[in-house]
Amino acid sequence: MSKIGYFYTDCLVPMVGNNPYATGEENSTELSINAEVYSLPSRRLVALQLRSIFIKYKTKPFCEKLLSWVKGSNCARVIVLSSSHSYQRNDLQLRSTPFRYLLTPSMQINVQNKMKSLNWEEMEKSPCIPEINDSEFCVRIPGGGITKALYDESCSKEIQMAVLLKFVSEGDNIPDALGLVEYLNEWLQIIKPHSEDPTVPSLRWKMPSSWRLLFGSGLPPALF
Questions:
Q1: For residue 125, how far is the Cα from the chain centroid?
Q2: Are 49 and 61 found together in one domain?
Q3: Neighbour count for residue 33 (Cβ, 10 Å)
Q4: Residues 98, 136: one domain?
Q5: pLDDT tens digits along 17-28
Q6: Where is it chiefly localized (predicted)?
Q7: How far, in Å, CA of 210 to CA of 215, rounded?
């Protein structure tokens, strides 16, 4: 995907860094910031990547601005890739797949049958106030950042949105990232699998060069 611009907002902590997708010296010095936009015209696909945390009390203004941009750009639908704390799963969730989805009412009309054909599991409702049995039930995404706020705002604005998420733990989340994008690909078929056998991992994803430094640059030789 090619970088086509950035999403200007004062809701995210400012950040600047090197090109996380550098392929060589010729593009390694390109700068990246906290919210950038990429596109893949052949698939009619646009991606917004966030690389920074939200400033306190700025979540709602960001959701409103983002969805205003979505409407103004005539996006057909929005797909949010997110996660939730694995340690807050209930017994049912512990015994099933770690992946879940959510659809806004306007999205359900178009894709609910497709989700059922994939045997995907919708995010369950849980007590709005944890550990209080007589609390009302609602959708909760603990550890999901702005996901729930963005979903609620999309419901009220009748925007077609799907949330795909995985229950994860802190640590090396590279396998989680690859699992989530394969989950997305089951639905959208962005990359066609090379094998007809669904149990064979036949998809090859390119990992960002910056992932090599996820845990630092290694131990300095002077230590030995």
A1: 20
A2: no
A3: 15
A4: yes
A5: 999 999 888 888
A6: nucleus
A7: 10
